[in-house]
Amino acid sequence: MNSPILPVLEQLNKVVLGKPFQVKLAVVCLLAKGHLLIEDLPGMGKTTLGQAMAKVFGLDFQRIQFTSDILPADIVGANIFDREKSAFEFHPGPVFSQLVLADEINRATPKAQSALLEAMEEQQVTVEGKTYELPHPFFVIATQNPTHQIGTYPLPESQLDRFLFKINLGYPDPALEKVLLKGESGRTKMPSLESLLDLETLEGLQKSVSDLTVTEHLLQYVMDLILATRQSPDFAHGLSPRAGLAIVSAAKAWAFVDGRDYVLPEDIQQVFVSAARHRLQSVKTSSASTIELIEALVKDVPVPA
Q1: 34 close to 250: Cβ distance less than 8 angstroms
Q2: Cβ density class 244-262: b for 16+ within 10 Å, e for less
Q3: 305 belongs to a structural domain
Q4: Which of 174, 201, 228 delimits the end of a domain?
Q5: pLDDT confidence band for 285 (50 / 70 / 90)
Q6: Which of 77, 106, 192, 288 pairs as cysteine with 144 (C-beta 3.0–4.6 A)?
Q7: Is residue 207 part of a domain?
Q8: Which residues pair with 130 in a beta bridge?
Q9: What's the CA gap between 107 and 89, in Å, rounded?
Q10: Do 185 and 234 share a domain, yes or no?
Q11: pLDDT for residue 243
Q12: Per residue in 207-238, pLDDT tens?
C-alpha cells in the first residue's frame, strides 16, 4: 500500500535538512503514540523540528522553556483566586496542548521535571486533588543538552522510560550547512509549510498503526533481543517489559510509514537502538559506547526461523 505519510516526510525534510532518518523516527514516534527525547548541542534544529511537526500535522503547539527556577505550576497550571466569583479557578498551563516542546528539560530541577511524568504516561494532570484531561493526541518532544554542560540535571530513569525514542540530530553535512549560511535555514521555510492532516485523519493513522499485526516469530525476536540485554555483562540492567511494548509499537509504525500492513525483522532493527539507548546503561568497564554495544547486540541476536 502507498504510505499516506510520504508527503509529511517530504515537507519536514525541507525544513530539517539532511536528517531523513531522524525525521522519520520523529514521525514514527508520533504515530506510535510515544514521546520523543532529542539530545544535542544548542542550535542543531531541535526546536525547528518540533515546530515543523506541529504545523504539518495540524496540531496545537506550545513551547516550554525549562530553566533552573521553573516551577511545576508553570508547566501544568494552577488554581488562581477570582475575586468576582469569590472562588478559585484553574488556569491551565502550557502542557495543555497537542504538541508540547519541552525545551532544555534537563536545565530544570528534578521537581519541575517530574511535573511532566503523569502527563506523559496518563495524558492527564492532577492539581490539588482534581484531575484534568489533556488534549488528544498528546505528544511531547523534549530536548536536552549533553549532561557534561554546566547547569544540567540528569533525567531520572523513571522520566527517561516515558520516552519512546531518544535521538540525536548531529552536525549537518558541510554542503547543507553552507546552504544554511546563505540564509536558507529551516526557520525561513516554516511559513511555507502546509498542514497536511487534520485531527481525525491523524487519529485514524494512529489506530491503523495499532491494528498492524506482528507474527509470533517476530514477537519472539523482540523477546530474544530483550533477554539478550538482561543477560549481557555490558549493561547494568536489561530492558523492561514497557520497553518491549515500546519496541513493538515503534516497529509497527515504521512498517506503516514504509507502506506495509505487516512488520518485518528490519522494522524492529531500525527502531531498536533509538528505543533502547536511553533505557540501558553500559557498565564502566566497557570502552564502547552504549549505542555501539546495542548495535553489536542486534547483530549477534539471530532472527527466529
Answers
A1: yes
A2: bebbbbbbbbbbbbbeeee
A3: no
A4: 201
A5: low
A6: 106
A7: no
A8: 127
A9: 30
A10: no
A11: 93
A12: 999 999 899 999 999 999 999 999 999 898 89
| Structural domain ending residue among the three candidates 148, 182, 201 | 201
What's the structural domain count of the chain?
2
Domain of residue 247, CATH code: 1.10.8.80
Q: pLDDT of 125-150, one tens digit each?
A: 888 888 889 998 999 999 987 766 66
Same domain flag for 186 and 221: no
Q: How far is CA 37 from the centre of its chain?
A: 5
The Cα-based distances of 132 to 135, 141, 159 in angstroms read 10, 21, 21
18 and 79 housed in the same domain: yes
Q: Which amino acid is at 266?
A: E
pLDDT band (50, 70, 90) for residue 28: very high
Q: Has residue 206 been placed in a domain?
A: no
Residues 137 and 151: their CA atoms lie apart, in Å, by 32
**Grid coordinates standing for 64?**
516550554
C-beta of residue 70 within 8 angstroms of C-beta of residue 111: no
Describe the crossing of helices 265-276 and 20-31 by its angle, rounded to 10 degrees.
90
User: Quick one: 107 and 170 in the same domain?
Assistant: yes
Q: What does the alpha-carbon distance between residue 286 and residue 157 come to, in Å, rounded to a whole number?
A: 20
Take residue 118 and report the three cell numbers written for it. 503523569
